[in-house]
Structures are given as structure tokens and as C-alpha cells.
# Entry
Amino acid sequence: MADVIFFEKPGCGGNARQKALLEKAGHRVLARDLLAEPWTAESLRPYFGDRPVADWFNRAAPAVKSGAIVPEAMDEAAALAAMLAQPLLIRRPLMRVGDRRECGFETERVDAWIGLAEGVPDGRLEGCLRPGMAPCPPPRRD
# Structure
């Protein structure tokens, strides 16, 4: 099993569910505070791989929900600058196992990468489950 460095927003229920799934599958989760990490563009960029820039964003971030930040209108440099200024914009979790880095928690992708326990639901296991809060919409594929 893997040692997963897991950057989360402390107190996030979605991140707690994700960590529990990883631990159930036998992985060791080393949780870190995403908001307190001293990110640079060079340290953050590898987590997004070849995903479209719009997929790098936390759709539940207040600036995205209000329309102040429009992920589809940003290029790579602008997106990284915005995320460094406002880490809540970063899609969570960020995970690192060895040299590989990933953002978000798409169960099929995580399962293919490091393996998950049986009975895990398909799809994205992201979003807020606080009363009155809808889950984040899936990333756009424009």
C-alpha cells in the first residue's frame, strides 16, 4: 500500500470521507493543511498534470460561485497566480504518492492509480455535504 501525502482543507467533510476511503484500502494518509502550505507556482503546477485549467479549480470556492473568478476564462499563469493568492480556489484534495501528483478525488482515477477498497462509489467523491449545500458540479469539458 501507499503513503499518500494528502493536502486538505482542515475540517472539510469531503476530505474526511476521502481519507477514510484511502485508509480503508490500506493506505497511510499523511494529511497536510492545503491552506497553510507555502505554495509556489512551481510546487503547485505538477498536481494538475495535463488537465484543462478550468479543472484545477474548486467549484465551491466563494470567488468561483460568485462569478468573481471564472475558471474557463483563465490561462495557466493567471490560474496559478489566483490560487497562490487565494488557496481556497485550489481543487481538493491534492495528493502525492512518490513522484506522481494528482488533484481532486475521481474514484476511478484514484483506484487505477493506487487502488481503493471494494464498494467505493463511481465518479467524483468531492463536494460539500453540509446541510443546504449542493455537491460541486463536475468539471466542464468545453
Remarks:
- The chain has one domain: 3-114.
- Residues 131-142 have pLDDT under 50 and may be disordered.
